[in-house]
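Data availability (excerpt). The following record was deposited with the supplementary files.
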Amino acid sequence: MDATQLYSSTLESLNSIILKMLSPEWDAKLQAASTDARQSALAQLLQVQHARLVLGNAVLQEISAELKDNEQALLDGQKALQVALDKLATVESVLITVNSVINVVARMVPLL
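Predicted structure:
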């Protein structure tokens, strides 16, 4: 996969996370979760939105090497993310998967 495809698929994954975390199904799961899980989910949503903005504003030429270096981690994270979002088993399992994707993105662009 070339850098452009990795870049696009990563942005698509981040967009999918945002859409799922704003869905009625996710909200229902959050209502049944603990206070800590709800706070963690809100923090994760903000991190995802931030990562999406930073990555979306990054110049592809400047991060293409980082994309290729992290290709397998990105692809693995995207697959795991899709499974977690499709199942929406528990808030905690989705948050763990989302966090792993955010950590890979943070290796390519500074999220601070």
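Summary of structural features: Helices lie at 3-21, 24-32, 35-57, 60-69, 71-87, 91-108.
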